[in-house]
Amino acid sequence: MAIQFVTGNEGKVREARTYLEGIDAVEQVSYAYTEVQSDDLGEIAARGAEEAFDGLGSENPVLVDDSGLFVDALGGFPGPYSAYVEDTVGVERLWRLAEGEENRRAHFRTVLAYCDGERTETFVGSVGGTLVAPRGEGGFGYDPIFEYNGRTLAEMDTDEKNAISHRGRALAAFAEWLADV
Ligand code: ITT
Known about the structure:
CATH topology: Maf protein
Strand order of the largest sheet: 2-1-3-4-5-6-7
Oligomer: single chain
Low-confidence stretches: none
Bound molecules: inosine 5'-triphosphate
Helix content: 25-40%
Number of domains: 1
Largest sheet: 7 strands, mixed
């Protein structure tokens, strides 16, 4: 049964499809679930998945992905507000905010929430790296300014990024769980 990935972000869908290829089909659907005001990505994603499952009225399970970039020197900013900050400040200017800091460590975090009407499960993944001046054409969002082992995530192809990324790790936990149900 195809999983309905509730997101407007095609980059997320590409990564989930690449990872889950041969395990399950992934269909991109739009549904404007309420992003509850919370610092807890797990809570945002789980509530969103339940609301989308009910709202879509389909029998297929749904998957919601809530992600964020957390910059150490900025107290974890933009964190849960990453999408808003990308739309307003932009990736390049976020880099400029971090550029003057001695500590340029940051991490990405993803929570995937799955809901099939009977149960809601969440899966998390994170990856640590260093912020750098933008490089690379691949990926999406903050990928060009996030370096892992000498390369930015935007300099990796989808499989390479999935092998080390926050989303790849969350997808791995999800796939492992899915294999047992
Ligand atoms: P949906 O809510 O529709 O799924 P979104 O892009 O708004 O899409 P989020 O609320 O999870 O998703 O926002 C996360 C922000 O972080 C957003 O600006 C993304 O572009 C960015 N982001 C998420 N995953 C990323 C990744 O793997 N690499 C780089 N940036 C990422």
